[in-house]
Specification:
Layout (H helix, E strand, L loop, with lengths): L3 E4 L8 H7 L5 E4 L5 H11 L3 E4 L6 H9 L4 E4 L9 H7 L2 E3 L6 H16 L2 H9 L19 E5 L3 H12 L3 E5 L5 H6 L3 E2 L2 H7 L2 E4 L13 H4 L6 E5 L8 H9 L3 E6 L19 E3 L8 H21 L5
Parallel strand pairs: 1-2, 1-3, 3-4, 4-5, 6-7, 6-9, 7-8, 9-10, 10-11, 11-12
Helix pairs in contact: 1-12, 2-3, 5-7
Length: about 325
């Protein structure tokens, strides 16, 4: 019987890249469109795969137990974040669960920097005024900031955050970073200043969020952190929405502590069309596309498939 790899879901187009990687090695590729836990369970029962490629589908403990019963050896997620996969259950059941960590770092860093610069320079408000047929004089809207005198704080200091830091320094910004898992000397070697969590918020004109979403980091950008920022500060999040406490964010906007927010992620995606936060002129929103480019899509899909193949054929760690 031909072993099967199940693509639980994939909104990036036909599975030609995955088939090109897997079918010559003797695997059948089935492309499903699972949205719910029950959808995934039904696909597992129907196709009995040995490997999974996953985008957004919920890979819960219940799903993983069913996957173990069909002899699934490994799964790879299309992306970096793994918050839709129960990693503890995967470890317990002996299923290799991995991400693709290096496919679009430059795109996300570019997007985060674009949001940051747009906020500091007041682009959303000035653009909206021009679209209304207005040509405001100084004083009608807040003056754009001088980027080179601003300080950027990076919450998390992985590959993407480091690239954002490089871009920010190119504009003359001072860069602070907080990451409890990165040594201070490594932060300094990468061109940023290591600081304590509280000092990151106190010392930054804007903070860009680049931490993973875990039980320990959920809501880490909350009222306590935001209260430390100077009035008129900015926040950018291209990581995971759950890192930010929405109630605290709205309160910080209401009191003027945050003058602008750039978000590429939302608490429930897709965002509801009538969500009032979408209509707040101080909130610059993009629909989870920071990672997106033609090249990054190809790299993501090909890498996920080839890494899964490595594990399935060798039983070892993915290359």
């Amino acid at each position: 019987m031909t072993p099967t790899v199940l693509i639980t879901d994939n909104d990036m187009g036909p599975a030609d890249l995955e088939r090109a990687a897997l079918e010559p090695a003797g695997y059948r590729v089935v492309h499903a469109e699972c949205r719910t836990e029950d959808d995934v369970l039904e696909a597992l029962r129907s196709h009995r795969p040995v490997g999974l490629l996953v985008q957004y589908a919920p890979i819960t403990e219940r799903v993983l137990r069913a996957a173990a019963d069909t002899d699934v050896k490994a799964l790879f997620r299309y992306g970096i974040g793994m918050d839709n996969v129960d990693l503890a259950a995967a470890r317990t059941l002996g299923i290799e669960a991995r991400n693709v960590p290096d496919y679009g770092s430059a795109e996300v860093a570019n997007h985060a920097t674009t949001l940051l610069l747009s906020l500091l320079r007041g682009v959303p408000a000035w653009s909206a005024a021009a679209a209304r047929g207005e040509w405001p004089v100084r004083g009608d809207l807040p003056d754009p900031l001088e980027v080179g005198v601003c300080t950027l704080g990076l919450l998390g200091f992985g590959a993407i955050a480091r690239e954002v830091g490089v871009r920010a320094r190119a504009f003359g910004m001072r860069v602070l970073a907080h990451d409890p898992f990165v040594a201070d000397d490594d932060v300094r070697a990468a061109g940023a200043e290591p600081v304590a969590f509280e000092d990151l918020w106190r010392g930054s004109t804007a903070v860009s969020v680049h931490a993973p979403l875990t039980s320990a980091t959920e809501g880490v950008v909350g009222a306590d952190a935001l209260s430390l920022m100077a009035p008129g500060s900015f926040l950018v999040n291209t990581a995971r929405a759950g890192l930010v406490d929405r109630t605290a964010l709205e309160a910080a906007l209401a009191e003027g502590r945050l003058a602008g927010v750039g978000l590429d992620v939302w608490w429930q995606e897709p965002a509801a069309a009538d969500d009032p936060l979408l209509r707040d002129p101080r909130v610059l929103v993009t629909p989870h596309v920071a990672w997106l480019s033609p090249g990054s899509v190809r790299r993501l899909r090909a890498s996920a498939a080839s890494r899964l193949l490595d594990v399935l054929t060798t039983g070892g760690s993915p290359s």
